[in-house]
Amino acid sequence: MTSQKTIQCAVFGASGYSGVELSWLLHHHPQFTLSYGFTSGAREAEPVAALYPQLNDRCDLMLQPWQLDLLPQLAEQVQVAFLALPHEASAELAPKLIDAGIVVFDLSGAFRLSDPAQHEQAYGFVQPQFAHAIPYGLAEYTQLQGNEPLIAVPGCYPTAAGLALRPIADFLANGSTPIINAVSGVSGAGRKAQLHTGVCEVSLQAYGVASHRHQPEIAQSVGREVIFVPHLGNFKRGILATIYAELAAGVDAAAVQQALHAAYAEQPLVRVVAQPPKLQQVVGTPYCDIYAKVHGNHVIFSVAIDNLLKGAASQAVQLANQYFGLATTTGLLNRGAVL
Ligand SMILES: NC(=O)C1=CN([C@@H]2O[C@H](COP(=O)(O)OP(=O)(O)OC[C@H]3O[C@@H](n4cnc5c(N)ncnc54)[C@H](OP(=O)(O)O)[C@@H]3O)[C@@H](O)[C@H]2O)C=CC1
Ligand SMILES: CC(=O)N[C@@H](CCC(=O)OP(=O)(O)O)C(=O)O
């Protein structure tokens, strides 16, 4: 185990929603020191509290615009970079950081899909060639050794779907297609101004119907085709996913419950709950809450996470904890969130 606060790290995209949550978690982390918080080159240097006044007198991080000529200095100082960047920016920057000897935890979708053709179709750009070898970091199902150069942090919706469906993957009817309906708060779309996420525009609505880039990611994660329909809701943060899956003959409610409890008995950040979860019980926390009910030959899940934490920043820290041999919850409990 590494001694106190010795692991220096940088957050790229620290002015964004998932980046600021990461920065706040790392600011308090007992083992990591947040040495740099970078923004795009389009900004001036400024304190993080200038963008997020709730951090006044609580976090003295200075945001700096990223320029490539900072790389040698960065490589001397930090061991770890967390990328909370647009997908293409991550794809471009990650190889440079790796070449400089920095381990990268990437929150974008740039390295999640192992099939390059599927990636190009979903993201519209060509994936770096080494992407197929990058571990997909659904934290409860990943065993990092501490020598991986890059870890792909799962997407927010795929985190919720993967944590529910993986424990019962062997119980599903042959050839059946789970259906995932999920509602996300507006922070899922990031901080940048966009008409469709404006306060007068958002009203519960489906989008990306059976065409969202997370559909192939969920399919890859659970090992079968799925139907995925995301929805945008008029609330700030959180994802509530309702998942329907057909069970193989003979699988009953007890078997499903036993599989879920067995999968997460030793996993402190996934809670198998007895009532359908409310968003408010996970918002601002690193937990995923999973409820399951068997109805006839189907299992119905209701799953709740905070998209910016378990769906992004806290899962990245969970993976970094694992990478450095720390307990999975280190620095994650009793923290509160920024937004
Ligand atoms: N929001 C969410 O719920 C989740 C997001 N993610 C992923 O995390 C990543 C960040 O998302 P989110 O926090 O929502 O995004 P935001 O739009 O809130 O933030 C984006 C950040 O990236 C910076 N940035 C933009 N372009 C560049 C560039 N070319 N070079 C360097 N920095 C750049 C921005 O800086 P500036 O302020 O200067 O523009 C900002 O700090 C995305 O890949 C997203 O898909 C993953 C899971 C959940
Ligand atoms: C509400 C909303 O817009 N959500 C985003 C997903 C969140 C996100 O940033 O996607 P990744 O997990 O792939 O990084 C979207 O649908 O594009």
TrEMBL record:
GO biological process: L-arginine biosynthetic process
SUPFAM superfamilies found in the cross-reference section: Glyceraldehyde-3-phosphate dehydrogenase-like, C-terminal domain, NAD(P)-binding Rossmann-fold domains
EC class: oxidoreductase
GO MF annotations, alphabetized: N-acetyl-gamma-glutamyl-phosphate reductase activity; NAD binding; NADP+ binding
Main function: Catalyzes the NADPH-dependent reduction of N-acetyl-5-glutamyl phosphate to yield N-acetyl-L-glutamate 5-semialdehyde.
Sequence similarity: Belongs to the NAGSA dehydrogenase family. Type 1 subfamily.
Protein name: N-acetyl-gamma-glutamyl-phosphate reductase
Taxon lineage: Bacteria, Pseudomonadati, Pseudomonadota, Gammaproteobacteria, Alteromonadales
